TrEMBL record:
Entry keyword set: FAD, Flavoprotein, Oxidoreductase
Classification via PANTHER family: ACYL-COA DEHYDROGENASE, ACYL-COA DEHYDROGENASE FADE28
All residue ranges annotated as the Acyl-CoA dehydrogenase/oxidase N-terminal domain in the record: 6-119
Domain Acyl-CoA dehydrogenase/oxidase C-terminal: 284-418
Name assigned to this protein: Acyl-CoA/acyl-ACP dehydrogenase
CC cofactor: FAD
Organism: Streptomyces yunnanensis
């Protein structure tokens, strides 16, 4: 692994930081989260037009920049520093890679150029708060996590009202002229209240042919009206910079995301593989974002303790305060190294993919952010306990990020399971299955 960044990667980081320093201070963040969309649309368009941020990891053929997970993670680190409220994670990290992996040429050409240009946004809809499981970060995604086939979650069925049977149709294949319809609901959908395109995980086939598939739903028509049968409600969240929504689907028209129109077993395997690959990248990007937030919070705290005086001297001169800050610095740097490694591994840096690298990096970064945010509140003293202080932007992000793809102990448990850390019998075979990221995380 070459730990040095290229000139292009450094330029992405410098340019994005300079723009966000000018346009995304704490006051601007608070103003943006109170808009109907939950983010500054003008700033989002600027990030798309000048920096190509939404399409950073998309191929040039679809209007993207042709970069990879490492560049996307570096961008997320900078947006994390500013606690930027934007549809970056929902669009560029979660939804767009799934459309690219499964959509086929027609669907890619229809959806990806607008996403890459910032003209539309997307969201991944996973029912039951099972996003971590769907992305194979907190558990295997080979089960009925999208609904179970009988009740709950989101169900998909092929509508017989939209077309007749096709001669020679195999059992379970779509009827000619028909269409998929979705029923059910999902909560805590990241950016789902304002997204133009929804990538929906739904259960199909009932009990007999149980399988989980992905569908795309055009949430808004050309006139801006909501799709028939779709009801979206923005939910109240502790971290307002991560707006979430409740999605209700009542006989909503959808299109299967995949090459196999019947949604057979091959489609199921492809969906699981695409979600797992997306999960590896998402974990690295969210880890980098948490590192950026932790680094910014630590810098603000260091600056404050240099200025705040107590007993006639700056509180930063007290050895106890210095020790606390030194521990935080080490935690942030370790989390940054893990996030960079996870992004490099997700981009194909290793000839043999290392299971659990993203999950471990995310767990370490979340813990670092939580520790830094808590100390930031404490070391800012009385002013740090007021909701209006900037320290609480990081504190709320730390508190809510773990609920998005965590918790931390499940991320680590899943990584250990994938790496074979607790293989029965132990010995050399078990140790050979444990990659360097796992060994570093457990101190082996």
């Amino acid at each position: 692994m070459d730990a040095a960044f290229t000139e292009e990667q450094d330029e992405i980081r410098r340019t994005l930081r300079a723009l966000l320093d000018k346009r995304c201070g704490p006051d601007e963040v608070r103003a943006a989260v109170r808009t109907p969309t939950g983010y500054d649309e003008a700033l989002w368009r600027q990030l798309a037009e000048q920096l190509g941020l939404p399409g950073l990891a998309l191929p040039a053929a679809y209007g993207g920049a042709g970069c990879g997970p490492t560049e996307l993670a570096l961008a997320c680190e900078e947006t994390g520093r500013a606690v930027l409220p934007a549809p970056l994670i929902g669009t560029a990290v979660l939804a767009a890679p799934l459309i690219l992996a499964l959509g086929g040429e027609r669907r890619r050409a229809e959806l990806l150029p607008a996403l890459a240009a910032g003209q539309s946004t997307a969201a991944l809809v996973v029912p039951g708060g099972r996003l971590g499981t769907a992305l194979a970060l907190t558990g295997p995604n080979d089960g009925d996590w999208a609904g179970g086939g009988r009740a709950g979650g989101i169900q998909a069925r092929w509508s017989q009202e939209h077309g007749g049977g096709a001669p020679g149709r195999s059992p379970g294949a779509p009827r000619a002229g028909g269409g998929w319809r979705l029923y059910g609901e999902a909560e805590q959908v990241l950016g789902g209240h304002a997204a133009d395109v929804l990538v929906v995980a739904a259960h199909a086939g009932g009990f007999a042919r149980s399988r989980t598939l992905l569908f795309t739903v055009r949430a808004k028509g050309p006139d801006g009206a909501e799709a028939p049968g779709l009801l979206r409600t923005r939910q109240t969240a502790m971290d307002e910079t991560r707006p979430q929504a409740r999605i209700e689907l009542r006989d909503v028209a959808a299109e299967l995301l995949g090459e196999d129109p019947s949604g057979g077993d091959g489609a199921t395997d492809a969906v699981a593989a695409a979600l797992a690959a997306t999960g590896a990248t998402a974990a690295a990007c969210l880890a980098a974002e948490a590192v950026g937030a932790a680094d910014a919070a630590l810098s603000r705290t260091v600056g404050y303790v240099k200025e705040r005086t107590q007993f006639g001297r700056p509180i930063g001169s007290f050895q106890a305060v210095q020790h606390r800050l030194a521990d935080l610095y080490v935690a942030v740097q370790a989390a940054r190294s893990a996030a960079y490694y996870a992004a490099w591994a997700a981009g194909g840096g290793r000839a043999v993919p290392e299971p659990g690298a993203g999950a471990l990096a995310l767990a370490q970064a979340l813990e670092a952010l939580r520790a830094v945010a808590a100390e930031a509140v404490q070391l800012h003293g009385g002013i740090g306990f007021t909701w209006e202080h900037a320290a609480h932007l990081y504190f709320k992000r730390a508190a809510c990020d773990e609920l998005l793809l965590g918790p931390v102990h499940r991320l680590r448990a899943r990584a250990a399971e994938q790496a074979g850390l607790f293989v029965s019998g132990g010995g050399a075979d078990a140790g050979a299955l444990v990659g360097p990221a796992v060994r570093a995380a457990v101190g082996a």
